[in-house]
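Bench notes, afternoon.
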Amino acid sequence: MIVTARLLLRPPMVTDASGALEMLSDADTRTWNPARSVVDLDSAARWCAELADWSGGDHASWSVLDRQTQAFLGLVSVHSINPTQADAEIGYRVSPTARGRGIATEAVAVASDWAFDNLSLVRIELVHAVANPASCKVALRAGFPLEGLLRQSFVYGDGQRYDEHLHARLVTDPPPFIARSA
């Protein structure tokens, strides 16, 4: 569990299914970060249960909740963990009602801190479509400088192939300021 002044990050639970389904049904989420297997409440519950299973060592995923109300705000995941190379990727999704408030930035920053501290990682990459400028802002604000352009590198949920920005944060980079709980 990770706690900040306003967020609680904990492994996903089946009880997050309705919030996850709402988030994954959003048009922007379906374009930039779809989960095609989630089509109803039952499949959303299975998806949450799968993300909660960290036993394979290839990912660590958290539901992002409002610390006070426990409302589901999104999901962040450190994935593609490679212990040999000491690197991983990070991805996130935020519910439409939580956008524009720095939720994604805060969740990405603290999940990255956790991964550096607990997984002995040296590097975490964040990749997003160039056509998604909101994700570029999240990456930069979460301490992930832009490193380059990956041309025509990924087919997104709309079936189109997009150029992507590659951002990365190193364990030696200064962390962004995020208010922690006492």
